[in-house]
Write a structure and sequence with these properties.
5 strands, Rossmann fold, alpha/beta, 211 residues, 7 helices, five-stranded parallel sheet
Length: 211
């Protein structure tokens, strides 16, 4: 049984931008990936709404992905793959980050993952670093616009893929740019609709098969 941890934020949790609830298992991308890959694989969903890479969020509570990744590894071990897709929430206005800052957070995350991989898993875990889909122009009229800082969040999200590609090369990860395959919903400018959730699951299943 090949075990795959999907570690992310609301895009991995399956937030429905229209109804603002969780998509069912027919639509969430990790579940779609499970259906595509079949019984020889075990997909572990670890999405959390509002999760950041490595930043505390006093307004929203315990969202720091860096502090949870260690316990998460231990509770779900053994693992063969980790698919990590984080960074969208780090684009929020309250954090005042540049894209380079966000990449710096991701570098710290990868250092921690690789340390666990090397010393507790004998380098057996393949890491797939996913650059998230771009925040779109729809953020200007979205209920999330004020939180994300409108056009600045869009710009930051568009800059992440270059940084993430460089990090993937540095840390020997598989790099995947989700923005080349899916687009966020015009309803809120941040989340994927059901069709793009499903598409992402199918494409990432192919990434797993090829690595």
């Amino acid at each position: 049984m090949i075990r795959i941890l999907c570690y992310g934020d609301s895009l991995t949790w399956g937030f429905d931008p229209v109804n603002r609830i969780r998509f069912d298992e027919d639509s969430r991308w990790p579940c779609v990936m499970q259906a595509e890959l079949g019984d020889g694989y075990k997909i572990i969903e670890e999405g959390q709404n509002g999760r950041t890479i490595a930043t505390e969020d006093p307004a929203e509570g315990e969202k720091n992905g860096l502090t949870y990744i260690g316990p998460c590894f231990e509770s779900h071990s053994p693992l063969d793959y980790i698919i990590i897709m984080l960074g969208s929430n780090d684009c929020k206005r309250k954090f005042s980050y540049s894209s380079m800052d966000i990449a710096g957070e991701m570098q710290i995350m990868l250092e921690k993952i690789q340390a666990y991989n090397r010393f507790k898993s004998k380098d057996s875990i393949k890491i797939i670093l996913v650059s998230p889909p771009h925040i779109s122009d729809a953020i200007k009229d979205s209920w999330l616009g004020d939180s994300f800082g409108y056009e600045n969040a869009k710009r930051l999200s568009e800059e992440l893929s270059g940084w993430y590609k460089a990090l993937a090369d540095m840390y020997d990860c598989v790099f995947f740019d989700a923005a080349e395959y899916v687009k966020v919903s015009d309803v809120d400018g941040v989340h994927l609709d059901a069709g793009d959730q499903q598409k992402l699951g199918r494409v990432l299943a192919e990434v797993i098969r090829s690595h």
